[in-house]
Amino acid sequence: MQTDITAARERFCTILRSTQIDNIDDIITYLDEVGFFAAPASVRNHFNFAGGLLLHSLNVYDVAMRLREDMIAMRPDCEPMLQPESIAIAALLHDVCKADIYRQVKRKQKNEIGIWEEIQTYDVDYSNFPAGHGEKSVMMLLRAGLDLEDDELLAIRWHMAPWDLATQSIEMDRSYRTAQKKTPLVGLIHAADSLAAQIIESDGFTLS
Ligand SMILES: [Fe+2]
Ligand SMILES: [Fe+2]
What number of CA atoms fall less than 13 Å from residue 41's CA on the CB side? Predict the structure, then answer.
């Protein structure tokens, strides 16, 4: 798949800067430092190549902005709770937690004609900051100095929705359901993330 990672990074930064957040360039510097722009989006599934996390984040943003239009058409009262700036922050930064978990490794793999060859791939290593997934993204962003609004924080925290709840407590379940009712941004970002990862990225296609 041919994708211009440099152009994607430029677009990502332009959208983030459009939020007019004072210290957004400090956040972009932080993303660089933690490896966000070079990371894959996964090891074996969607966008498992350098820059994949960046492309996935842009896809989530594009899907979320399209869903926003439809949501507002059906429920105009939702518009104040679905501000484009908040969608930019939540969609582009929901998976910051993945920036520090991938390590490049070499593996042996049989090619199409059955010959073993060495390939460059990724493995996961959670040891740098093993603090979860959505909640880890929130912690990292707050630590970096990003002043998240409540709805942005909740949308990032719960972007995995029920997939994050299976082994967790009743408090987690209730918190998630309450967050979902509190702001439509929670459901919107979860839907956009699922559609991007499960459908749009399943064959390497990107909307950007
Ligand atoms: Fe995620
Ligand atoms: Fe994601």
Answer: 23
pLDDT in tens, 103-159: 999 988 888 899 999 988 899 999 999 999 999 999 999 999 999 999 999 999 999
Residue 170 belongs to some domain of the structure? yes
pLDDT in tens, 62-94: 999 999 999 999 999 999 999 999 999 999 999
**Cβ-count burial of 63 within 10 angstroms (0-12 exposed, 13-18 middle, 19+ buried)?**
buried
Ligand nearest to the CA of 46: 2
- Furthest CA-CA distance within the chain: 60
Domain count, the chain: 1
Interval between CA 126 and ligand 2 midpoint (Å): 17
- Domain of 146? 5-203
How remote is the CA of residue 116 from the centroid of ligand 2, in Å? 33
d(CA 197, ligand 2 centre) in Å: 7
Check which CATH number belongs to the domain holding 54 and give it: 1.10.3210
By C-alpha distance, which of 106, 109, 110, 108 is closest to 120? 106
- Kindly give, in sequence order, each residue whose CB lies less than 8 Å from that of residue 6, ignoring residues fewer than 6 positions away: none
Structure tokens, 77: 């009262």
Indicate whether 208 belongs to any domain: no
Cα of 113 to ligand 2 centre, how many Å? 35
